[in-house]
Amino acid sequence: MKMGLRRLIVIFVIALLLCISQPFWLYFLNQNNSWQLSFLNNRLNSVLAQTPVNSENIQQEIQKKLESLESFQLGMKNFDEGKFKEAIESFKNVLAITKKEGYRDLVEQNSVLVMRKISFLMIGYAYDLLKQEDLAINYYKQYLVTFQEIEKINTYPKNNEEVKTELTIWFKVGFFSYQKNKYQEALDYLLPALGMLKKYPIKNIIQTGVLRYIGDTYSALGEDDNALYYYQQTLLSIEQLEGEDKKLLKGIIIASMASVYANKKQYEESLSLYQQAIDIAEEQRDIEKQAKRLASVASVYVELGRYAEALKEAEKSLDIISKENRDSLKAPIFETLGEIYGKLAQYDKSFDLHKKALDIYTKEDDIVGRVSNLNFLGRISEAANASENALDLYEMALKILNNSGSDMPGLRGRTLNNIGSAYWNLGKYEKSIEYYEQALTIRRKFNDKNGIAKTINNLGLVYSDQGNNEKALEKYKEANKLAIENQDKESEAISFINIGEAYMNLSNYPEAEESLYKSIKAWNALRDKLKDDENISIFERQTVSYRLLQRVLINQEKISNALEVAEGGRARAFIELLNSQTNNKTDYESLSPTINQLKKIADQQRANLILYSFIDEKFDTRGNKKWQNSQIYIWVIKPTGEVTFRPVKLKSFLEKENTTLEELIDNIRDSIGVRDRSIFKRTNSTPPNTAAKRDQFAIKVFPSPDDDPSKDLQKLHEILIDPIADLLPTDPNERVIFIPQNELFLVPFPALKDRQGKYLIEKHTILTAPSIQVLGLTHERAKELASVQNALVVGNPDMPSIAPKIGEEAQPLSKLPGAEKEAKAITPLFKENKLKTKLLTDKQATKAAVLELLPQAKIIHLATHGLFDNIQGLQSAIALAPSGKDNGLLTAEEILNLKLNADLVVLSACNTGRGRITGDGVIGLSRSLISAGTPSVIVSLWAVPDAPTAELMTEFYKNLLNKQKPLDKAQALRQAMLKFKDKPPSYWAAFTLIGESNQVTN
Fold first, then answer.
1. Using CA atoms, how far apart are residues 312 and 210, in angstroms rounded to an integer?
2. 464: CB partners within 8 A, 6+ apart
3. Per-residue pLDDT tens for 2-39?
4. CA atoms in the 13 A half-sphere facing the CB of 568
5. DSSP 376-389
6. What's the whole-model pTM score?
7. CB environment 923-958: b (16+ within 10 A), e (fewer)
């Protein structure tokens, strides 16, 4: 009979083929079995009639056997009537009566065994129908044992139905073991089933199923070649089938083969096969399989390090599956997306996605899914320096594995490896080695090539921390060789970093240098075709290469080379983004800075460039291994091309002050009354007495009467300025451009004080930039600006509503009457300079109106609230008037896609210089505006009261647009600050000019 899809899948998921067309038990009362039982009945009655009355024991024995026959017949009757529980009791009675009985001859023995065999089978099938599969499988196993006992004494050949019955049970038990992840046990039943198929050729769906699940089992055990062989045999078996389901099965096997080729690192073959499987799913309109296979393609792209393509395929998969109202289908896609974002170091996204997947897998009682995602969550916790929490998650995963009794060598090896990692981070080295060795044993046994490389590399880390650098180097090299063989670029990059560090610890600097350059090259190969935000995230992971390499080069007194590396280790994604917007689309290597290029930029800017670079060392912090700043390298490049290097021992200074640099900067901002307004709650741990601990939507200024910022401003001056003070220009009009890194982006450089109490702005004209190369690109952009003569001024728009914290009700932002006064005060200054000026206030200042005017404006001045996003950066926003469905927030992400012709954009708003601080600089409004084409941007590092801001900005534009003696942008800002320097720094020191300092010309 022709089988429909439902029946095919039911059989493939181990339903018994024999129950398709008539009551199950009739198959077992076939001619041979019926004869055996009839013979036993007649034989027992005959013996009973001939037994003397006084032979009580013999009579009782025979009577029991007759009772077992009656129970057997009753069991068959109950089963036929659908009374499965009653049938089970009857058959169990048969087994109890016959369990210890002897036999007079082989015929009687055979007959009783037949009755027991059928009883085991019927109990198993009854439990199957009652959905008690564990009990069913137990009786099926006993059926097979009894069947084998009969075969030893059987004198008649099996008929076709007996073969089908036995074959089906072998298959069912094997499949059940596979489902329970008991892979070796699965083979113990599936391989005998295959042997029967060879002895009794039966061309049906069971043959296809046996071959398929042998392939799946070998795949799960990591025996890829065996798996491929049986998948090929399955495809041949499928060709012998008929019906519409033939193509469905073919798609399943092709997808399985694609997975094996991915394990073998034969990625092109894998992708080709996945595409064939996807085409079949699309043809059959099977949304579930289409989505799963797209997610699998994404996983292959992850292995190849092609993260942009991985995200594209995974998001396509999620979009397809979202049309189905079945959460269980979304779990593997959430898992894949979480893995991708983890690779991109976007840990918040990764954690949320893995948590969603874990919740679904827990609900579905999916052991593999639960264990896998507990491991992922543990890795993210380790990345957040929460190793104890990570250890709890890993041990929970191991407990699930142990309780399940499942093989799952891949997951077990991974979990043991991760437990070793947690112990390493906690400084418990012997425990770490113990678990790494356990993981390595399992991974070698099952030939997990990637896993072997990672665990060996991890062992090297332990030996390194124990001070055994020779042993560590040996392990790193072994891991590196495997990573290259496996085409695993990520592991290759990491192992090259570790090799470089080991050589550095051994004072073999040339070898260290070579390895670290190789690590940078390997990381760059992973960044191909990524979007900007993804490029930023993965670059975060490779900054350690640049920092270690600087140390190695400085130890060899290669000062210029170290400067090239220091510049090359910042704003790479930003530089690539800016280059991509011109005709200069170049590869990573050609974008690498050279010392001559950096000197040329200093000359173009007619400025002294001050580049800061943090150098890290690994320290134990509350039981966690953590990289911390130990030194700051400072380079000064003069307009003449002279380059000077000065190192600062940061660690000793901070230990003396019992603080960290982050705390010092936070406390300065706190003491001068900084008000942060983030659209997200900070997630990282922050020290006490910092602004981040307070309500981030507070509108009051909150310095304590006891707070004195001068002391901390002097400490920062001592760290950042004193070491290079003799190199800075004596002419206060000569420009000094600071190139910060990490938390230095939050430093109010104009307000830093020397020992005499003099502000830095009094002695120098100050600008900042995310990198020297960005300065070069903004310089070129300033020369290419379209000639426009308009100005746009926005002041105090009707304010949008924002939730103070995630999950709270939205509240309207406070009005800024001072900002409106500011806008109205500067508008005449623009008009006097023949700039056609549009002033927007209140409800006129909608996002739509502003977006329409932005591309035609030469100067853009936005006096309103700013909100910063320190989680992603691109959701940092400027507050404008809402209209219709528009919430009024102009985000950094939206600005990034604009095309601006403005010579200058001033964000006279709070926190507009803030955002997500990364190795690529501050991801926020300033970066987006420069990317959109603006060479000069003025932003604020904190929320300045609107009245002082109005005064400062009015003074700035008077200086900038003075007809008799116009100043360039940096000088105009400096003079405005100097006018108000007797007021608290919170009033004037927040603003910073990023980019070009040229004059605004008409």
1. 36
2. 472, 498, 501, 502, 505
3. 333 333 333 333 333 333 223 333 333 343 444 444 44
4. 27
5. HHHHHHHHTT-HHH
6. 0.67
7. bbbbbbbbbbbbbbbbbbbbbbbbebbbbbbbbbbb
